[in-house]
Amino acid sequence: MRLLPEETMSVMRRLEWLARKRMQGTLTGKHTSPDKGFSVEFAEHREYTPGDDPRNLDWRVMAKSDRNVIKQFIEETNLRATLAVDISGSMAFRGEEAASVEGEVLSKFSYARYLAAALSYLFIKQGDAAGLVTFDNEVKSYLRTGSRPSQVRRIVDTLHQAEPGAETKVASVLHEVAERVHKRGLVILISDLFDDPKDIVEALHHFDYRQHELVIFHVLADEELTFPFKNFQRFRDLEGVEPMLRIDPQAVRAAYLERVREFVKTMEVASGNLRADYVPVNTKTPLRETLLRYLGRRIHSKR
Questions:
Q1: Segments of the chain scoring below 50 in pLDDT
Q2: Do 110 and 104 form a contact (C-beta atoms < 8 A)?
Q3: CA dist 266 to 179, 260, 289, Å?
């Protein structure tokens, strides 16, 4: 299947995703739900009412207090994951050091598509639901979450048909996505985050307010992180906002790298304050390694 090469699928078959926050879903599954039922994790007692299963009576408490009480447990549910993928013009940048998949040297845009496809496959493989949002300065496509196997193909086809578009407006789009995703779930943002950092942080707080779990894959090319250029270069704005500039890299390198460090640090600190996962992604790192490193660490911390 396009965007899901066998190498990626073989990795995802061995992994799983466990939610950290309580999820609201429609099926019984492996993730903690905010709703109370009769599962395995004790939540609280309540008074017995006619029609309750006598097997859930807590005889020890009843013997001590002379009250008829029922044990309530935290139900487990399936997870609803929405993947928000940035397809703005800046994502089209392809560095010379970038990794490749099946011979394709990956731009940030290509890397994001393969990453989103792999995660969608993982969620639906384990019985959860996945949906997709693609955006540049507005939402370009919106697939509601679904858990049927055919949902993988719908997501992959939508990603395959996407093309790098216009100027980035990450913050405004994230506010819209936060409003569209009604039930408490997981939101995965895959983007280079090229927008005003303060506006992005404010938008990320919107997801926290809606009680979503948030994961941010911050995708940058190695050249954007290291600025290795030496001779005079012509730099073109991939989003078409600024004119082409001829710059001496030696004159701007120190200031540029300082701005990049501040930018990355702002995103990292904001994510930490929101208890969101911040995952820096360098496109020179093979996709398989990015997936194994993050998911392995996540499974370990959950356990």
A1: 23-29, 31-43, 73-77
A2: yes
A3: 24, 10, 25
Distance CA 271, CA 205 (A): 9
Q: Which residue has the tokens 């939508």?
A: 158
Q: What is the DSSP letter of 57?
A: B
Rounded (10°) CA dihedral 243, 283, 5, 147 = -80
Characterize the bridge pairing of strands 41-47 and 129-135: unpaired
Q: What is the DSSP letter of 69?
A: E
Residue pLDDT, tens place only, 144-184: 999 999 999 999 999 999 999 888 889 999 999 999 987 88
* Structural domains for the chain: 6-21+79-302 (3.40.50.410), 31-77 (no CATH)
The two three-digit tokens of residue 147, written as one number: 């858990």
Structural tokens at position 1: 């299947």
Residue 176, Cβ density class (10 Å: 0-12 exposed, 13-18 middle, ≥19 buried): middle
Token output for 250: 């030696």
* Tokens 């890299």, located at residue: 249
Instruction: Give whole-number Cα distances, 287 to 5, 181, 227, in Å.
Output: 11, 28, 22
Structure tokens given for 30 = 């492996």
For residue 138, CA distances in Å to 14, 53, 95, 167 come to 36, 51, 26, 9
298: CB partners within 8 A, 6+ apart = 17, 18, 277
> How many angstroms separate the CA atoms of 191 and 291, rounded?
16
Backbone angles phi, psi at 261, to 5 degrees: -60, -40
Task: Identify any residues that bridge with 191 across adjacent strands, giving them in sequence order.
Answer: 218
The pTM of this model reads 0.80
Q: Which tokens is 119 given?
A: 């995660």
